[in-house]
Here is the input.
Amino acid sequence: MLQIKGLAKRFRDRIVLDHLQLSVASGEYVAVVGESGSGKSTLLNLIAGLDRPDAGIVAIDGVDISRLPDDARTLTRRSKLGFVFQAFHVLPHLSVLQNVMLPLVLLGEAPAAREERARELLAAVGLAGREGSMPRELSGGELQRVAVARALVHRPALVLADEPTGNLDPDTAAVVLDLLASEIRDRHAAGVLVTHSEAAAARADRVLRLEHGRLVAR
Here is the structure.
């Protein structure tokens, strides 16, 4: 599902990713750990097509997203990717339910079906009953759970998660991590998690360390 070959990225004189290689199969869940500033978030942004590499390919389901024009990259992200951002990116003017339904709205899902699916995901992350709340009424941990539900609601082929449990207490983090893992494995998606949390990484099928711009097995 995800094939990365020779991926390179530098910022000014600093090499962040140095001809990195990674392959993730459908149904496989991979964790990437590393020091702050090692390039973990840069890697996810390149996989998602939010940034372009200096060299190499990022192929999602056989298509090199890094070479697509902007409109095609946007459509690929919308249909195939679910991204849990470290900074939430929850839209403040939409309710919790509307935020979670948004990917399905953009994909043209029927109103009844998208609402049912969004409510299902909100219940799974422990936010049943908060559908009508506005983001300003939620804690940081609750916003993170909204972001996780939104990332999974359209059943993406590739799930990317950037420190998805950083704002959660241990019990809630365990629920969210179980949901991520089950959605990836049960739906035969591919998953890439970047994290500082050993507990989060331990739930993955493989744990890789990003060092000096390359991934090494732990």
Notes: The radius of gyration is 17 Å.
